[in-house]
Amino acid sequence: MSQESSAKIAIVTGGSSGIGKAITRKLAKEGVKVIVADLHSGENIPNIHFQRCDVSKAQDIDDLYAWVNENVGKPDILILNAGQGIQKKLAEGDPEKWQKIINTNLMGPLRTIRSFVPGMLEKKQGNVVFISSVSANQPHPYGGIYSASKTAVEVIAETLRLETLPYLNVTVVSPGIVDTAFFTNQFSGNSTIEEMGMGAISPEEIAEDVWYALSKKPGTAINKIITRPILQNF
User: Which domain range does residue 116 map to?
Assistant: First the structure.
């Protein structure tokens, strides 16, 4: 990727699979140059570069920032998507696993913001999109740690919106049940989409929501989008 291009530049954390992959493909299709920050690389298509990054690790975020700054420049779009689920009762859970969830779901976005938002503010424009969940602000058995992490993310998003006015647009996208490997990749828990029996939406639908928010005319901000299967009751 070259800094000489006039195309917009996006960073997508966790962009190699699931919702992140769908967002990455949508942005690339629309002509955005995308840097995918993920533990795994994905398919090679135009406008996409994969940079290995574990967002739970401070050094990886520092290395990502150094590479982007040297090879690409300041991003226009920041998609904070990387995250992981966990299902366990609070009185039975493993605190080490809780810490991993917090480092990924909460500290990951915070460190990414701290690295890249100052440059966006220098340009006096940009979009930051947080991929949250309908689990935010919804306490439920076995889901306390994940829900708490996503609740915190939404508070951070609103704080960032207030702190970066009038230059950055900040959007929270909160999906319901999405047809991805999210439940399979949880630290603990064995729920499946089929067992929940409420259907699922495709990750491409969430990618369209993200693009809708990014495409609003200057001076207009979409601050929160909730999308879920019509049968979902939470």
Answer: 9-227
How high is the mean pLDDT of the chain?
92
Peptide linkage before 166 cis (omega within 30 of 0): yes
The beta-strand segments (E) located in 152-193 are: 168-175
Total domain count, the chain: 1
Tokens 């991993």, residue? 100
- CATH number of the domain residue 118 falls in: 3.40.50.720
The one-letter code for the residue type at 151 is T
Does residue 232 sit within a domain?
A: no
| pLDDT range class, residue 4, cuts 50, 70, 90 | very low
Residue 168 falls inside a structural domain: yes
So what's the pLDDT on residue 5? 52
**Predicted confidence (pLDDT) per residue in 112-135, tens digit:** 999 999 999 999 999 999 999 999
Question: Which one from 65, 142, 146, 212 is the annotated catalytic residue?
Answer: 146
Give the Cα separation of 181 and 29 in Å (integer): 23
Would 3 be classed as within a structural domain? no
- Is residue 146 part of the annotated active site? The answer reads yes
| In the chain, beta strands by DSSP E | 9-13, 33-38, 48-52, 77-80, 126-131, 168-175, 224-227
